[in-house]
Design goal:
278 residues; mainly alpha; 14 helices
């Protein structure tokens, strides 16, 4: 089981920083599930259990884009998404953020990709205040960007408040958005870990009990999320230390044993296995 400071930002070792002009790194697991526009749709409810999203029409270009995303063709999926307006931005932002989080090995490029998602999703959320997908991916990218520059620095820049507000807005608009519950739960735990329970409560309104409640609700809504299980495990260690090591290890073991539904979950399962080896 990894130390609670373990952050699954990438499965690949770092390499010298380069301009983001090279092709994105391919998914390294040939056993990941594959989809096309037609085979995608029967699996749509399971693939989007964490955040309800209406499925595209099977003959629509975005159906192909989502099939590429769930198959691990993140660069092609993002490119298709950028061609199709507001609806396509969801795909573009999700593909970019997930690729940056798991596969981009160059720190400067990774952070630049998160900033790109923050800007795109933020602009969309400003224009469409009730767009849960824009708010969620803005928050997701803010969270990973904050981890990259250090949570303390991000809090000082006000990024934490922006992230928390976005996720609370998502949950208010879409109470069954499992991913938003889990992300907000992780935020509470991360802030407490970095600044302490008292400062966290007084300055940022975070509480350990709220973190646990949000995790439990998120996993109730989406019980088969390996990412959620690992985030919960890390939070237990941040909030309670080694006294919850057994429970945290069980969560990692459960995540590692899951059958991945798509490429992103295949990456998560590999991270769980790597965490158990550490």
């Amino acid at each position: 089981m990894p130390h609670p400071d373990f952050k699954p930002l990438s499965l690949m070792s770092a390499s010298p920083v380069a301009a983001n002009t090279e092709p994105w790194r391919p998914l390294p697991y040939p056993d990941a599930p594959r989809f096309d526009a037609r085979s995608l749709l029967p699996h749509w409810p399971r693939l989007h259990a964490g955040h309800a999203l209406p499925p595209p029409h099977a003959d629509a270009p975005l159906a192909e884009g989502w099939a590429l995303y769930h198959s691990g063709e993140f660069e092609r999926a993002a490119a298709i998404g950028l061609l199709h307006g507001s609806e396509g931005l969801v795909l573009a932002n999700q593909a970019t953020a997930i690729y940056a989080n798991y596969l981009e090995p160059r720190e400067a490029v990774r952070l630049a990709m998160f900033r790109q998602v923050i800007e795109r999703a933020g602009a969309q959320a400003a224009a469409e205040p009730d767009n849960c997908q824009a708010l969620y991916w803005q928050a997701y990218a803010l969270g990973r960007y904050s981890q990259g520059i250090s949570v303390a620095r991000a809090l000082a820049q006000g990024l934490g408040t922006k992230l928390k507000d976005a996720l609370e807005r998502v949950i208010a608009l879409q109470p069954k958005h499992a991913d938003a519950h889990i992300a907000l739960a992780a935020f509470h735990a991360e802030v407490i870990d970095k600044v302490g329970a008292l400062v966290g409560r007084m300055t940022y309104g975070v509480r350990a009990e709220t973190s646990i409640e949000l995790f439990e609700r998120g996993l109730e809504l989406h019980p088969h999320t390996p990412a959620g299980m690992m985030e919960y495990a890390r939070a237990l260690l941040m909030l309670h230390g080694d006294s919850r090591m057994g429970e945290a290890t069980q969560l990692y073991e459960k995540a590692a044993a899951l059958k991945p539904a798509d490429a992103r979950e295949r990456l998560d399962v590999e991270l769980a296995r790597a965490g158990l080896r550490d």
